[in-house]
Design a protein that fits this description.
The complex is a heterodimer of chains A (99) and B (465). With 99 residues, chain A is of the alpha+beta class. Helix content of chain A is 41%, strand content 13%. Chain B has 465 residues and is an alpha/beta fold. In chain B, the strands form three sheets. Chain B has a five-stranded mixed barrel. Classes of the chains: A alpha+beta (99), B alpha/beta (465).
């Protein structure tokens, strides 16, 4: 599902802020904290403050959605045989104890 | 029944009715056959053997290690079994009272150390061990190995607190090394699902007790240590090693050196939750974090979503209030600036503006005047060629124009200068209108109708003098 064609928003250099919808919880929370800190420090032009507020609100909403939609994923490592590697197999919540 | 200590019980004295004194009858018979062999009855031999055994201090009391076999329990509640090793068997009895007080029930295949006394059961002509207590074999041995390995690995620095790695605050993927079956995994899943369902658990299954457990655990640790997600390339952030409670033997694999080392040198931080609170395996010393139980390990591994939701609420209100503050401070700034402008208006600001406007007016007036004068000369010339009637009207218009121009010229400050007035300015361009505001020695500029003078204030006199 991860395509290598699009540029990685995490890499440095770009000034555009990373796409919120793809952010993991901790990164979104970190940025939300930073936004609040910058706003609380003050001294920003009104325009920038409003833009920051909107970004913070979006980050907050994203964190809430992540928590609300979260579903624990349980998988199991299975030996890949001769290669010595292993891969994961999904484990549904019901059959875990029957393994 | 009162539980008794394992080894501190003195063996019960032999029953008084069977005193260890050889029966007089046999002894008295001996002289009757002084030359031939002494023939003893079965009972006599048995008693002789019994007495010999009873007098042997090494057999009374005695500790015997062996493997239990042929267990049977009588209707009366006594247990019968054999203790055996590679070379021999020993019949054993545990009477009901002792049996109920045993720390373990005799089971076939169990290796035990039995304590009791050897005696002879005359009816069957069998000597046997009258067991008073039983305990699993190897306990002392295991404890010794535990202490020795602990001392060795401690000296090596394997358990140093400086080796402990911090746990990741936000583990996205957690490896779980445990038995894939049973309550332990189930409990941990429940805890993590409740606290932080944003996690992905990857179970690296292993055998957690019995023969082969040691190798199985080490393999499971290596497997999860090597694993990376084929899509993201990310490894697990954290590993939990877990096993439920059990006997010392059940947990023993977690005291094996290979397992302890595999945990201490694992590429990812490891939480070890093995057994109950009271069990401390060497693996737990080796882990980066020790958990009293597997469920506690799961709790330590992930953040708590309820706490995080509270953090989010606090951040949201901080966000809203700082934005509100920013907007209201802007409003206040605007208001303050408006007021400042108002305070400026009657004063210097407006005066400067007025002067600027005045200068503009000057230029405009001069331009208009010049234009009008040229126009007048044009008119004058053309009027010469106009018919008289028209010439009369033109003359009236001309008079009108001249009046207007005169009015305009009267407004011109430069015209005023023509009347002998001057404009005095301070170096900052301000027009000087109040002597009291000037200081002696200050350079001033005096604009005249033609040219200007740079002068210096010699003295200041107020309006009264």
């Amino acid at each position: 599902m991860t395509e290598t064609t699009k540029p990685n928003p995490d890499t440095d250099g770009g000034t555009t802020p990373p796409d919120i919808s793809a952010m993991p919880f901790d990164k979104a929370l970190d940025e939300l904290r930073a936004v609040v800190t910058r706003l609380e420090e003050g001294g920003l032009p009104l325009e920038e403050s409003i833009a920051l507020y909107e970004r913070g609100a979006a980050l907050h909403a994203h964190c809430g959605e992540l928590l609300d939609a979260a579903e624990l994923r349980v998988q199991r490592l299975v030996d890949e045989g001769t290669a010595g590697g292993s891969r994961v197999m999904d484990l549904s919540p019901e059959d875990g104890d029957e393994l | 029944m009162e539980p008794r200590g394992l080894w501190d019980q003195p063996p019960p004295p032999p029953e008084p009715e069977e005193a260890p004194v050889p029966p007089r009858r046999e002894r008295e018979r001996e002289p009757e056959h002084p030359s031939g062999p002494t023939v003893l009855s079965v009972g006599a031999v048995t008693r002789l053997v019994r007495d010999t055994i009873r007098r042997q201090p090494r057999l009374n009391p005695v500790w015997v290690e062996g493997e239990i076999g042929n267990v049977s329990v009588s209707a009366a509640g006594h247990a019968y079994f054999t203790l055996k090793d590679e070379r021999a068997q020993l019949r054993c009895v545990v009477f009901r009272e002792e049996r109920l007080a045993l720390p373990l029930e005799p089971r076939t295949g169990l290796r035990v150390v039995a304590q009791g006394r050897i005696d002879v059961f005359e009816q069957q002509g069998a000597y046997q061990l009258y067991v008073e207590t039983l305990q699993p074999a190897g306990v002392g041995d295991l404890a010794q190995r535990y202490e020795a390995l602990k001392a060795q690995l401690t000296a090596e620095g394997l358990f140093d607190s400086s080796r402990k790695r911090p746990l990741p605050a936000w583990p996205r993927t957690i490896g779980v090394v445990t038995s894939p079956t049973g309550a332990v995994l189930h409990d941990m899943r429940r805890v993590i699902d409740r606290r932080w369902p944003l996690t992905r658990l990857i179970i690296s299954p292993c055998q957690v007790q019995g023969a082969g457990a040691e190798r199985s655990i080490v393999r499971a640790l290596r497997r999860i240590g090597r694993w990376t997600d084929p899509d993201s390339g990310r490894a697990v952030d954290l590993v939990i090693v877990a096993r439920g409670g059990g006997s010392l033997e059940d947990l023993w694999a977690f005291n094996e050196e290979a397992v302890v080392r595999a945990i201490a040198t694992h590429p990812h931080p490891v939480i070890v939750g093995v057994g109950h609170e009271t069990d401390v395996t060497l693996s737990e010393f080796a882990g980066d974090k020790r958990a009293a139980t597997p469920s506690v390990a799961a709790e330590l591994a992930v953040p708590d979503q309820f706490a995080q939701r509270q953090v989010l609420r606090a951040l949201r209100s901080a966000l809203a209030s700082s934005a509100r503050r920013r907007i209201s401070s802007t409003r206040a700034t605007v208001e303050a600036e408006r007021r400042a402008l108002e305070t400026f208006r009657p004063g210097a600001y407006l005066a400067a503006e007025r002067e600027r406007a005045g200068l503009l007016l000057d230029r405009a007036t001069r331009a208009v005047t010049a234009r009008l004068l040229t126009d007048r000369s044009v008119l004058t010339r053309s009027s010469d060629r106009l018919p008289t009637a028209l010439g009369t009207r033109t003359a009236a218009a001309r008079a009108e124009l001249t009046r207007n121009v005169a009015g305009l010229v009267a407004l011109d400050p430069f015209a005023t200068l023509e009347r002998g007035y001057a404009i005095v300015r301070a170096p900052d361009g301000r027009v000087v209108i109040d002597a009291a505001r000037e200081r002696t020695g200050e350079p001033l500029e005096v604009r005249l109708a033609r040219g200007a003078l740079d002068v210096t204030v010699d003295a200041v006199r107020d309006s009264g003098s």
